[in-house]
Amino acid sequence: MQKLIETIVKPLVDFPEEVRVETDENSSRIVYKLFVHPEDRGKVIGKQGRVAKAIRTIVYSAAGSHHKKKTYVDILD
Question: For residue 7, what are the CA distances in angstroms to 4, 24, 31, 68?
Fold first, then answer.
């Protein structure tokens, strides 16, 4: 799932080398923490959060077929 997120995000940003995904998992949920350069944060979120919503939709649907845990994507800088 981390590779999927990186594959989606890297073409969108000016600093693709700073894209990093960390996983925080417990018994009931998985949180994918997406770190980007501060200048790229707006590009990843998009106008009215449309890009972030699209990224989350893809990840949630891909994760739904792999495991039963609740999945979240947080965008951080």
Answer: 5, 20, 18, 23
Output the pLDDT for position 77. Answer: 79
What pTM did the predictor assign? 0.88
d(CA 68, CA 43): 30
The percent of the chain in helix, strand and coil, each rounded to the nearest 5, is 50, 25, 20
Q: How far apart are CA 73 and CA 77, in angstroms?
A: 13
- d(CA 24, CA 50) in angstroms, rounded, equals 24
Structure tokens at 27: 């018994």
How far is it, in rounded angstroms, from Cα 69 to Cα 49? 24
- Separation between Cα atoms, residue 40 and residue 16, nearest integer Å: 9
- Dihedral angle, C-alpha 11, 15, 49, 69, nearest 10 °: 80
Angstrom distance (rounded) from CA 35 to CA 40: 10
